[in-house]
Amino acid sequence: xxxxxxxxxxxxxxxxxxxxxxxxxxxxxxxxxxxxxxxxxxxxxxxxxxxxxxxxxxxxxxxxxxxxxxxxxxxxxxxxxxxxxxxxxxxxxxxxxxxxxxxxxxxxxxxxxxxxxxxxxxxxxxxxxxxxxxxxxxxxxxxxxxxxxxxxxxxxxxxxxxxxxxxxxxxxxxxxxxxxxxxxxxxxxxxxxxxxxxxxxxxxxxxxxxxxxxxxxxxxxxxxxxxxxxxxxxxxxxxxxxxxxxxxxxxxxxxxxxxxxxxxxxxxxxxxxxxxxxxxxxxxxxxxxxxxxxxxxxxxxxxxxxxxxxxxxxxxxxxxxxxxxxxxxxxxxxxxxxxxxxxxxxxxxxxxxxxxxxxxxxxxxxxxxxxxxxxxxxxxxxxxxxxxxxxxxxxxxxxxxxxxxxxxxxxxxxxxxxxxxxxxxxxxxxxxxxxxxxxxxxxxxxxxxxxxxxxxxxxxxxxxxxxxxxx
Length: 471
Prior knowledge:
CATH class of the largest domain: Alpha Beta
Largest sheet: 9 strands, mixed
Mean pLDDT: 95
Radius of gyration: 23 Å
CATH superfamily of the largest domain: Glycogen Phosphorylase B
CATH topology of the largest domain: Rossmann fold
Strand content: 15-25%
């Protein structure tokens, strides 16, 4: 099969979150299954110069954005065996940053239309186009309205993957004609609650809808998680499924990672102690055998920071230390900074994001705390297990699908169900009791490190889904 992934970002060319990690890893895993899998993303100004130097210019075309005709350059490069295409337009993508501009609607209308126009000029006809999140949601809509019966476009199937349902591409109804150029008699495809909702359009027109974990697929049928889209999803759930994301096991490999103090493995985890000692030293925390709890996250409410605030000092009284890395809302940054000032021997807080320090926390901490209110998939809990750091998570989305509670002595972490600070505290207490019993802790670390979160098994499920559409 020929599969084209369309997305707004991909590692290493442009990244702002987990979407880029997925698009940078999953196509290569599908390609290893014997399929021609390619990727198309915008060509952003922020791409590193050494990567930009590797691009090859293919051609330039014009793309209709309603009544406008816009320049579109098409570039290509090969990364890890996968062919990438880049859509170039200085006006739309020659900016500092990826999103958050007043004309994001127009920028990604252009990109979605350009992806379909590009197919006339490249030596690749996809059987499947897999869009990702609202920035590519118009690809199946444009295909349905303009391209379905054009020569060379027949029988292309569309899969749309929801990475985070909170961001849907909501705009006023005027964009339908003024920006998208879609006739008013097609408004029903995109209109939702009196506005134009791009994600709703993809849900209507794509052949399959996927999410990034099985639990998230059924959670978004509930108004608590759906941000208003549950009504349309309930009607379309016959084409909805969830496939758990994986992680790049070559990038996150404690046996070969050059950023950590000492390499180790599930068979020989002795190097983890040196990583912990180096982490304590670098963060100026008091040396000792007490467990270190790592937190690497954005400081926003849906990440469960409120729960951590409520019982933070209770956790410290259990005899735990914290290695915290992240940034976000000022109220949370100020809280963690105050905790570091009060308990400087037990708490280290680094504001911002430092990939090298994140790796050191994954490798050097004993536990990893993720009490998310919602978590479509989550990668940090998988990365932490890869490095033998035991996750403590709330059972939601991908956290539920990847972490099994060790209550019966056969899990790979500790979980709690309700969004409640004291339930989280109880999970931390159980983890501390296990840590204090080496006969229980060592096998738990082994189970965590040998959990399979590679992309290979996820790629098999994507391929099976594609076969459903093509066979």
